[in-house]
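Project standup — Tuesday

K.O.: blocked on the structure for the chain from last sprint. Re-posting the sequence here as requested.
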Amino acid sequence: MSSTEELRHTALDALHRALGATMTDFAGWDMPLRYGSERDEHNAVRTKAGLFDLSHMGEITVTGPAAAAFLNHALVGDIASVGVGRARYTMICQADGGILDDLIVYRLAEAEAGSSHYMVVANASNAQVVLDALTERVAGFEAEVRDDRDAYALIAVQGPESPGILKSLTDADLDGLKYYAGLPGTVAGVPALIARTGYTGEDGFELFVRPEHAVEVWQALTKAGEGVGLVACGLSCRDTLRLEAGMPLYGNELSTSLTPFDAGLGRVVKFEKEGDFVGREALAAAAARASENPPRVLVGLVAEGRRVPRAGYPVVAGGEVIGEVTSGAPSPTLGKPIAIAYVDAAHSAPGTAGVGVDIRGSHEPYEVVALPFYKRQK
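H.V.: unblocked you, prediction finished:
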């Protein structure tokens, strides 16, 4: 962003500063990077619980009699088949099949008879792009697209202790709330959309509340988690958590230069749904290409040494460049550096020998593994 533009602040900004957070510019927002040790925050989410401010995410409301048909046209997934109270991971693509963003779409209870109600959640860096694309694509549909980015604060509590922490503060039936589902309820006495979603690889919840209630909800969760090891967590450990869980990050594993089939996520494209959708023709061609001549495959790499790979580093084998690292970091859970990389299909099988990462001219040995690096025990 330019120096003349001011960073946006979430409703929890003063609280983060009072907690001594190290702040960073993320997609034009001043966000907490860490409060103390990134490793401690990461390990707390894996073993106990962590509390995140995700209010920079972009909420877009879609309503109207033709909301489902419109979203089926605008997005690659079959949104019309999502039941009330459920959510779906999907993508919005350009006409040429390139990924504009990956999204979570929640179907909420009907606001009025005959009018469906959805909430589309976009990544912070792409929220305006997604809003603009949806606004453009809604022409001809009996549906309304509304920018609700300022209507919500988003607080996540993630980790094995999160159900117990939240149960003490809500009237909602958490036991009956499945993964990728959301229901209205109250948290600490204030209205919330309670979703069993997250970006950490752990069980957890994302709570959409009005900005004026954010501090109250954060403080109630903090108090409820005091006895079970809940800690405030920044974006840095969120990145290592999602990396271990093999979850893609837009701008790293996903971009407009890749189709979902290039990213190994062709499963989100539903050709069988009714009606045409933006990118269908290009995506059908991409699917055919992928089946005949597999594109580079997204794999996990685990270091044999201690040097950490970063995005953009070449992946090599036999003196040839066979791919590129998209994300890399030390893994607190594995105790070794790890990376996600796109590599040629011939070198993508777990255990493939002779693969390395070119780290400043030195070819460091890495083991090819299947993603994810970490999967929680259920």
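K.O.: great, moving the ticket to review. Helices lie at 13-18, 38-47, 67-74, 127-137, 162-167, 214-224, 235-244, 280-292. The chain has a mean pLDDT of 96.
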